[in-house]
Amino acid sequence: MRTRFRPDRQLTARMVFTMFLLGLVYVAFVAALIVLIKSVFVVVLIAGGLLAAQYWFSDRIALYAMRAKVVTPEEEPRLHGVIDRLCATADMPKPRVAVADTDLPNAFATGRNTRRAVVCVTTGLLRRLDTAELEGVLAHELSHVAHRDVVVMTVASFLGVLAGLVARFAFYSGLFGGRGRRDGNDNNAYLVVLLVMVVSAVVYAVSFLLVRALSRYRELAADRSGAMLTGRPSALASALTKVSGEMARIPTRDLRTAEAFNAFFFAPALGSRASLSTLLSTHPTLQRRLDQLAAISTELGGPAPNP
Predict the structure, then answer these.
(1) Which of 81, 293, 299, 304 could form a disulfide with 233 if both were Cys (CB 3.0 to 4.6 A apart)?
(2) Domain segments of the chain: what residues?
């Protein structure tokens, strides 16, 4: 899909490289499991089916999980008006528009292609941002759709589930299968289970770090593309600062519930426990994002953002 969003070749290269590495990791993973257990194909088949389901129905799954609903222009004229203007400026098809009734100020985009794309914002975000700030956030989310990184993140994030499913399957099959054996093979069965658990842990750790690295870069890419499209980096910087500050006022229970969506949110929903390090975070730091927007503002010849 060709749009007026500035192409990001570094983002494309990182997406291809991440998927390539994940592919290698899981080919090695499956090969190792074939050697260790004979029924791995059943697990792979189940995981493959779940992956296909998430790919085809990712938009519905996300909306259902956030208790969001698609809204019409009559129901949300301000929201639709901003998206209409941005899509006309970007020369891209208009995605479906949804609203989640929660005080958590955030937004996300999902969908396997432009025809199935949906941009969702929360009522908490709509209440807190003015029109210019909302435009900056929505331009950020539309860039995810235009660059197709939403699809890559959906697939890449789900691949880690395979390791967990295989480990659980191996654990229970070894645990309950070994109890009924009287031929002295129990130790071998438990050794296989242990090896599967170790291999699964390594695969999960590698995929976790690769997905986190891609997630951080794609957020910077979306900030950059969104700011360039609107020509107002200061509005996006103001929205970032406001949303990040308002997170502290959201009940911890609500933040923990939403943490599963961190990789897809405009701004991370952090609970009472912050990430141990930048390496484990789904988003770059707020200061890193603001610094980039300040540089873009200078590039465009405008005043530096000062939220």
Answers:
(1) 293
(2) 9-300
